[in-house]
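Two proteins follow. First one:
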Amino acid sequence: MQSESREPNLKTSFKTILIAIISIVIISLLLFRNNFFKSTYLLKSFGELSVDPEIAFTNNKPTFLEFYAEWCEVCKEMAPQISAFKDEYEKDINFVFLNVDNQKWGNYIQKFAVNGIPQVNLFDKKGILISTFIGKQDEIKIRESIKNLEIEDKPYEEIINAEFSTIQDNKNNEISPRSHG
C-alpha cells in the first residue's frame, strides 16, 4: 500500500524539479543573453564596420587586417577584444575585416597565405606587413604590436598560437555541369 501512495508524490516531485530546472535555464538565458550572443553579433557586424581594403592600403594610415569566419569559435571568442581595439584605435588605424567565406576576398586570402583563422595582419602606414597573428592571441601582445606600428624599420614578426580554426572549403558557389538545371 505504501508504494502506491509514494508514486503520485514522486511524480509531483519530478514535475516540480523539472519545472524549476527549465525556469532556471530560461532566466539564465534572459539575464545573460548579451554574453551568449554578443560575440556572434560582433562577428556579423565586422564586415559592415570594415574599411575597404583598397582604401586602407592607400590612405597613409596603418592597417589592422583580420581574416575571420562567423562559424569560427576562436574568432567568436576574440571578437569582443578586437571590437575594443577598433573602438580605441579607429581614428588612427584602418580596421579591415575580411570573411574567409566570402569569395570576393579570395585574392587577399591567397596573397596573405591565410590557412588558419583568426589571422590578424598589421601593416604600417606605407602598407608594409609588420606582424601576423594566427589563432587566439593575448590582448597585451596585440596592443604592443599596434603601438609599435609607428616605429620605422621594425622587423617582421609572426606569432602563431595552436588555438585556431582551419579554413573550410566553401562549396556554396562551386559550379558543376549539373548545377544549371
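Second one, unrelated to the first:
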Amino acid sequence: MDGPVKMEKNIRKVPVRPGPIGRKSFCRLVKSGFKILGRYFYRSFPVVIMAKRLREEPPPPTILVWRKAGLDDLALLGELLPAGKIRLFRRRFQNREYCLVGLKEGKIAHYCWLTAGESYLDREMNYRIDLLPAKGYLYDAYTRPAFRGRGCYQEGLLEAGRLQRRWGRTVLLVIISWEKLPARAAALRAGFRPAAVILHRRILAWKWNLIKKRSDGEQLADN
C-alpha cells in the first residue's frame, strides 16, 4: 500500500525574474529616496520681492480690528502657533521688533512682522535686504486657517503700508514664495508689484542666492 504522498516533492520553486513592474517599483523607491534626501541636503526654490510705493489713500472697510502686539499677546498667539514659534516671537519682542495683529471676536486671525530699522537679515535664506532710503519690509505673516480666503492677508498688507507711511517710509517690500499664488494675488490687489526674483539654493549648510532684478533697473533690493 502506498504511503501518504508528500506534497513537498510536487512543488517546484519558480525563480523570480525581475519584470517591468519590479523595475518601476525600484525606480519609484529611488526617486522617493532622493526626494527625502533633498529635503535635508539640497533645496532650490524661487521667491518674489514685491514692492509698493506708499501714498496717502483712504482706509478701506476692514473685517479685522488691527493693533500692535506685545509680550502680553504670546498667550493668544500660542493658540495658533507651536511652542518653537512662540519662543522666536518672545525674542523678537525683546529685540523691539514690531508685530501687527488683526483680531476677530477676541482671537488673532492674522499677524505680520515689520521692520523699523535700516536693514533686515533673513537667517533662513541668508539674505540681507537693504531698506535705505526710507524702505520698509514685511517679513513674516500668517493667517489662521479658519479665516483664509476672506482677504485678511490683503488687509494686513494695507494696514502695514499705512503704518510704515506714518513712520516716514515711502516703499514697502514683501517677499512671497513663488508657489503661493493666493498670497501673490492678494499683494497685487493691495497695490504691490513684482520688483525682483530671488532664486535660493542650499546644499547642506552652504546657501546662496541669485537675484534677478527688473529690466527697468529700479533697485529696490540689494544683495
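SUMMARY FIELD: Strands lie at 42-53, 65-68, 98-104, 107-114, 119-122, 127-130, 135-143, 171-177, 193-203, 206-213. The mean pLDDT is 80.
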